[in-house]
Amino acid sequence: MNKIIRKIYRTGTSKRRLPGIGRSRTARTADKTEEVEALVLSQEDLLQTHRAQRQIARGVGVILSQRSVNRIVKKDLRLICMKKVGHMN
Fold first, then answer.
1. Is the pLDDT of residue 84 over 70?
2. pLDDT tens, 22-81?
3. What is d(CA 15, CA 29) in angstroms, rounded to the nearest whole number?
4. CA angle at residue 76 from 72 to 77, to 5 degrees?
5. What are phi and psi of 49, to 5 degrees?
6. How much is the pTM?
7. Residue 42, Cβ neighbours under 10 Å: how many?
8. CB 51 within 8 A of CB 71
9. Which three-class secondary structure state does DSSP give residue 25?
10. Is the predicted pLDDT of residue 89 greater than 70, yes or no?
11. Measured in whole angstroms, how far is the alpha carbon of residue 51 from the centre of its chain?
12. Which ranges of the chain does DSSP label H, i.e. alpha helix?
């Protein structure tokens, strides 16, 4: 709290001076999101053509982790992931 108060006293605002500084996003870029979206939605109407997130992560042209695929599907595409479950006999 003291750090914010000092910053307001020194600069007159609590906003950052240079908003573009910081770690840039590398995994969830627009082109990778489009690739994942194409792989996910290509399975929509076709039965027995589902892919797991692990397979989608390998299918994208560049190296992309399974967790990044999960974030793209959930946060960017706003889809719900269903886990593949074996049949019980």
1. no
2. 777 778 888 888 888 888 887 767 766 677 888 888 877 667 888 888 999 899 889 887
3. 25
4. 90
5. -120, 20
6. 0.59
7. 11
8. no
9. coil
10. no
11. 17
12. 2-11, 30-41, 53-59, 66-71
